[in-house]
User: Fold this.
Amino acid sequence: MPTIGVLAIQGDFIEHRRMLDAIGTESKEIRLPKQLEGLDGLIIPGGESTTIVQLIDIYGFRNPLRKQVKDGLAVWGTCAGMIVLARKLLDKRPEPLGLMDIEVSRNAFGRQIDSFETSLDVSGIPGPPIHALFIRAPLVTNVGANVQILAQVDGDKPVAVREGKLLATAFHPELTNDTRVHKFFSDIAST
Ligand code: GLN
Assistant:
């Protein structure tokens, strides 16, 4: 059984913990880099990516996180968390951590459709489509050779991607009652 940390410096970390509780996976709120030790997985929640990155740097998470990922820590970023994980952003701010070989554009669905809901088939997740909530969501604009696209909207826009033990979703499974994506990540973290 994995232990999953939820980065608890800004954003909807409480909702992620509620989902992990629901599937019986042990979770911890992570506020300092030394708390990363001994974790199997880490969730970087949705919120405001500029604030999350600012606090990541203030608390000194950048290098320890890079090291833990190299040593096999699984990480899942939802929405702002996806932005934080990216290798490159099409926006000026923030400076992403570069942990995952994806290029991302923030608030990519434009003002008109700021937030929306849709049904999504996510590769690797059995059962009916996922009810996906997008809130000022980012979009993956390019992926490296080792990145697998798990789900797309409008036919060709990636919104769920995986690279080894790293997972990123532009939507928010933690704001629904469907625990399947949390189960999927918990299984990745257990391997
Ligand atoms: N638009 C936010 C950002 O750029 C992300 C929104 C979210 O996490 N729901 O950080």
Remarks:
- The CA atoms of residues 44 and 77 lie 5 Å apart.
